[in-house]
Amino acid sequence: MFSIRIGRETVGWSELPTHDAETGVAWGVFKPGSAYELVRPTFRKFTNALPETSSGTPNERELASYYAERDTLGMSLHRQDDTEIPISYIHLADFGDLEDIEIEVAIADAEAWRLFIG
User: Fold this and answer.
1) How many structural domains are present in the chain?
2) Neighbours of 19 (CB within 10 A)
3) What is the overall mean pLDDT for the chain?
4) pLDDT band at residue 38 using 50, 70 and 90 as cut-offs
5) Any residues with CB less than 8 A from the CB of 61 and at least 6 apart, and which?
6) Nearest Cα to Cα of residue 105 among 95, 96, 97, 116
7) Where is 40: in which H helix or E strand?
8) Which structural domain range is residue 57 located in?
């Protein structure tokens, strides 16, 4: 189980069971922690910017705002032994149901990937 944090606050956890070494991306189900409510409005911006239908157009201004906010959150990924794994980004797909949030993590580089795989 990996923890996602901002500073000392735990945003949530994930097993990140699916991963692709070629792209350096891991994903899975996200389980929110007590600090998730602090960042939830940022991640809801992403889902709110998506079109309601597959033929619709996303709200590009809202997406740009989401990426800018997300990149300033300072989120980090940690193994169970508390080792921090360098990342490029963490994305949470929150469509409103706290029981059904998906996480995607881009691991920073090959050395970080080795830490991730452990």
Assistant:
1) 1
2) 17
3) 92
4) very high
5) none
6) 116
7) helix 36-49
8) 2-117
User: Stretch 54-65: mean pLDDT, rounded?
Assistant: 83
DSSP 73: S
Residue position matching structure tokens 């189980």: 1
Angle at which helices 60-70 and 36-49 cross, to 10°? 150
Distance, in Å, from the CA atom of 118 to the CA atom of 112, rounded to the nearest integer, reads: 10
Q: How far is CA 105 from CA 48, 58, 82, 100, 112, in A?
A: 20, 22, 17, 17, 12
Contacts of 30 by beta carbon, 8 Å cutoff, 6+ apart: 4, 12, 13, 14, 92, 101, 102, 103
Residue 98's pLDDT band, with cuts at 50, 70 and 90, is confident
Determine the longest span between alpha carbons in the chain, in angstroms: 45
Residue 113 phi/psi, 5-degree rounding, is -60, -40
Instruction: Report the percent of the chain where pLDDT is more than 90.
Output: 75
Nearest to 73 by CA among 106, 104, 42: 42
